[in-house]
Amino acid sequence: MSDAQARLSAMALSSFALNGQFLKIAEQLAAPAGLTATRWQVLGAVLNEPLTQAEIARRMGITRQSVRRTASQLVDDGLLRMAENPSHRKAKLLQPTTQGLAAIEQISPQHAAFAKVLEGRLGKSHMAEISDTLAELQSVLDELS
């Protein structure tokens, strides 16, 4: 195995482990608001702008079927609403409701506290560097795939 292959394998294995850790942390942070990590992920995707289910799936790297199922549950629970999409008649836009925004707001204090603890361990500049490096890796992988 070449050095490049070994580094790629190490990055992939670390990413898989990190994904599991982030999901576990997200479950703990979202639980007091009555959400799961998946429901928080889909709801959080539309906080800044309305998106279609396909757009959420692409941005989050999850399947459309998973987004469709989760979004449907969130709509049924009154946390998301579907709006007309001027760009596409069939693909509705998802937007948070007042209740959905309240659920996200309920998560915010624990989320902020955990972020502060993590920043304390890593340091502000190193945490920013890690975030930038992960964003760069994601961008390069998007270009290559």
From TrEMBL:
Residues 1-145 form the HTH marR-type domain. SUPFAM superfamilies: Winged helix' DNA-binding domain. It comes from the Bacteria. Gene3D superfamilies: Winged helix-like DNA-binding domain superfamily/Winged helix DNA-binding domain. It holds the Pfam family MarR_2. PANTHER family: HTH-TYPE TRANSCRIPTIONAL REPRESSOR YETL, TRANSCRIPTIONAL REGULATOR, MARR FAMILY. This is MarR family transcriptional regulator.
